[in-house]
Amino acid sequence: MSKTKLITFTAFLFFIFSVSFAQDRTIDSLKKNVLQNSKIHDTTKLLSIANLIDQIHSNDKRGEILNGMMGQLASKNLEKTNPQDLHVKYTKYLAAYYSNLAEYYKLKRDVVKTMSSIDKSMSLFQSVKAYDEMNFLMVNKGIFYSQINDKEKAIQCLFSALKYFEKNPEENQDGISYVNATMSTIYSDQGMYDKAISYAKKTIDHFNSKKKLEGEDEYRLTEALVNCGSYYLYSKKYEEALGYFNKAMAYFKKVGNGTYVSICQAKIAQVKMEEGKYDESESFLREALNSDDGELSKANAYINLGDLFYRKKDFVKAESYLSDGFFISKKINNIQLQEKASDLLLKVYKENNNFKKALEVYEFQVKLNDSSKMEASKNALAQQQLKYSYDKKELNLKLDAEKKTAAKNNWLIALSGVLLLVLSGGYFYYRNNRQKQEITVLEKDRIKQKLLLSQMNPHFIFNSIDNIQSLIINHKETVAVSYLDRFSKLTRQILENSNENYISLKEEIDMIENYLSIQQLLYNDKFDFRISIEKVSDTESYFIPPMLAQPFIENAIKHGIKNTAEKGMIEITFSLNQEKLCFEVIDNGSGFSDEKKQSNHKSMAMKITRERLLNYSKNKDFDILSENRLDAEGNLKGARVIFEIPYIYEN
């Protein structure tokens, strides 16, 4: 949410100011007709300022001036003693002022001031128990963290807001949808387009489930359609991308929004460009220029035309369009378009042997990247400095108070105070050290889990590569290609989950199914498999450490059925009994001999998995049960492995 649109979520804006200001009204007109009129209440003046700010583009300097006026008026009223309802209104307007201020600092790439303004705004909303507005702003904070590439903090902010919204999901569907839409963009920035599409579709489903779209609902729905189309475009799924872009464009044509019609046409042109349909792509880009003459639309269309002619190796036209688009993108301060234009211009200048201009563009890119990185590093230092200054100020205040008290009291009270201070200091020193030790232990455990999982992944990958090599050596190229395709999908799943301490049970089962399908292919369908879920109502609500089961399944295949004449059977069960989640794998193979049993437990994967389970469970008596299966006559009919899996349940 940007600028004072945040205010629309508050309860006090239940009416529309009767005198609406057109976009071309000046600040002088506002001062003369409203602000200097003593008959108009200050809350009405603040609302009129907020309405006017919403009609002004973020880059318009008038917005900053108006926002300053709103902050000054709200702050002045808060210095007075007001009834509770007025106090809440003025506090919310001051919070909106800081929220807007954060947007302006963000455009200037001032990380420290942006974060400081967001925190002040959130603190003000919290002070009047405006938790809805505070958590919408928490999402904005997550978006900002994502923009400065601090993905971990971004995700923390988003899930904090999501946790609040989901306490009352029926009333907070818009908030949940806002988080989902933001999550989709973060996953897209990380190149995880499948997850980005998943979250974008959740947003689309939310709006489609409404009986009637109100306010900005249609716009938000269409924005999600454009984003979803973009993720399909980045995934090279062009048919799906076109479907979403066409739906979005139909809506924007219906409401007469030329800017977004132009953007959709440019998106469709990108799809045609990727498909090698250059003439169709150029046609859509020409339509995009005709649909809207705004600077954003022009810059977008020009840069895409430059890309098109670069691909067609017409470097003269490419340079002309890219130069125009680059100039406009700098004028409107659009960082994304600047980055795309400069990347393409650098290539074109090299093709045209214009190394002087290529160097200028390269230096611009370095400056653009370095400024962002520099501000990001400043932010951490500034936060520490702010904390230090605050603690120092608090300490000085306490010392001054103690001096004044000591001067008024006798020596006995003074000595008692000193003794109490020493005891308190000793206690807090002890507690602080204890907390530091606990944090250190937790960090070491977390690092150890990542190291163990990183050892697991190469072990599995090397085994799979050996299998592919064996197929190629045996001249089974078709099978090898099929195997490699499935293996790449499984590798992507492993890489996505390797940074996670926990994944959902559903994701683990999907990974197991893919792994077993690969092994079926390798062993020419020599075995079947079955995965059962018992007494687990929702596999997406149970979270377990990733890849715990894989080594035992691999063992069942290699040592259980590899050398048997009859068709093998692998049965896998996840069951919940008395709040204990158990994993069990059964095969109908040759079972465990003493020698096999001993060697299996000494294998790298088994040893690592055992260490991981011990670390997660914190149970020294933890054990993995492995045994042979016998029929009624005592004949060997396979092997069985079972152990308890530590889990987290999130409802």
From TrEMBL:
<dbReference type="Pfam" id="PF06580">
    <property type="entry name" value="His_kinase"/>
</dbReference>
<dbReference type="GO" id="GO:0000155">
    <property type="term" value="F:phosphorelay sensor kinase activity"/>
</dbReference>
<keyword id="KW-0812">Transmembrane</keyword>
<keyword id="KW-0732">Signal</keyword>
<protein>
    <submittedName>
        <fullName>Tetratricopeptide repeat-containing protein</fullName>
    </submittedName>
</protein>
<feature type="signal peptide">
    <location>
        <begin position="1"/>
        <end position="22"/>
    </location>
</feature>
<dbReference type="Pfam" id="PF13424">
    <property type="entry name" value="TPR_12"/>
</dbReference>
<feature type="repeat" description="TPR">
    <location>
        <begin position="222"/>
        <end position="255"/>
    </location>
</feature>
<dbReference type="GO" id="GO:0016020">
    <property type="term" value="C:membrane"/>
</dbReference>
<dbReference type="InterPro" id="IPR011990">
    <property type="entry name" value="TPR-like_helical_dom_sf"/>
</dbReference>
<keyword id="KW-0472">Membrane</keyword>
<dbReference type="InterPro" id="IPR010559">
    <property type="entry name" value="Sig_transdc_His_kin_internal"/>
</dbReference>
<keyword id="KW-1133">Transmembrane helix</keyword>
<dbReference type="InterPro" id="IPR019734">
    <property type="entry name" value="TPR_rpt"/>
</dbReference>
<feature type="transmembrane region" description="Helical">
    <location>
        <begin position="411"/>
        <end position="430"/>
    </location>
</feature>
<dbReference type="InterPro" id="IPR036890">
    <property type="entry name" value="HATPase_C_sf"/>
</dbReference>
<dbReference type="InterPro" id="IPR050640">
    <property type="entry name" value="Bact_2-comp_sensor_kinase"/>
</dbReference>
<keyword id="KW-0802">TPR repeat</keyword>
<feature type="domain" description="Signal transduction histidine kinase internal region">
    <location>
        <begin position="449"/>
        <end position="527"/>
    </location>
</feature>
